[in-house]
From TrEMBL:
TM spans (from-to): 20-43, 55-76, 82-101, 137-157, 163-183, 195-215, 249-269
Subcellular localization: Cell membrane
Pfam families: Caa3_CtaG (PF09678)
Taxonomic source organism: Arthrobacter oryzae
Keywords, comma-separated and alphabetical: Cell membrane, Membrane, Transmembrane, Transmembrane helix
Protein name in UniProt: Cytochrome c oxidase assembly factor CtaG
Organism phylogeny: Bacteria, Bacillati, Actinomycetota, Actinomycetes, Micrococcales
Keyword Cell membrane attached: yes
Topological category with respect to the lipid bilayer: Multi-pass membrane protein
Record bears the keyword Transmembrane: yes
InterPro entries the UniProt entry points to: Caa3_assmbl_CtaG-rel
Gene Ontology CC entries for this record: plasma membrane
Amino acid sequence: MGDYHGPVPPLEVILTAWQIDWAAAVLISGSAVLYALGLRAAAARGQRPAVWRTLAFYLLGLGSLTVLTCGFPGVYSAQLRWAFTLKISLLLFVVPLLIGLGKPISLARAALPPRGVERLNTALSHRSVRLLSNSMVAPLLGLALFSTFLTPAFYTLRATPTAEALLTFGVPLLGMLMALPIIEEADFRRSSAFFTLEIVFVFIELLVDAIPGILLRLNGQVLDHVTAVQSAVGWFPGALRDQQLAGDVLWFICEIVDLPLIILMFIRFSRSDKREARGFDDLTDAELDELNAEHLRRGR
């Protein structure tokens, strides 16, 4: 493989590039232990989550987190813009959805005693959590993060160990806040009217998320001002080509996640609409009259 030349690494490198990312190791091991304790406590209370959810949490969720941080994207993220972009974008958009398949909040409800459930409810209903999990707010934070890729901070984020550790913890957390309203729907119920506005906003915003990727791809200058190639390996691209590849990765991922997220939001809208319809069906004629009268009074 020594005579290989080109911007794409050889398969051998992709499969054998591994490291220990200590920040990721703490996050992964802590999550694994907490989930296992939750499974044991829930089983003691007579509640056993579906086996496929447990497998999804460990194999798909924590497994993908391990590959991204300890595998090829993590090993080369400081040197390759496109590897760093691949890692961060998947940590934000994909890993939280895969972890969420394990329904960690539902498991916590099944495992905790009544006082613990009350504290969990208090935390979930806190204004900051509600704000950050709002589908009109959380994606803007992702856009702000990706916009830094257009500045010299792009190099600082990928080359500074402290910044990398903070991103390892912070980006999946932000992604979880974006994903929880979709996956743990019972804890984030909103009216169907709100969902309508939310879907329109998120559709526009997800398209806007691709703008940093487009700008990275089409710009003719190295935006982080680091033009030296940091390796003599033949398959390493030049600085500008590396930036363009990072733009391709970000552009593709931001666009490809649009469809499943919008489909999930339509599913949430449908469920919310059905719940509201059942609620109206359960009202008596007198209660409906009172509801209509209250609506008319507010309209005056």
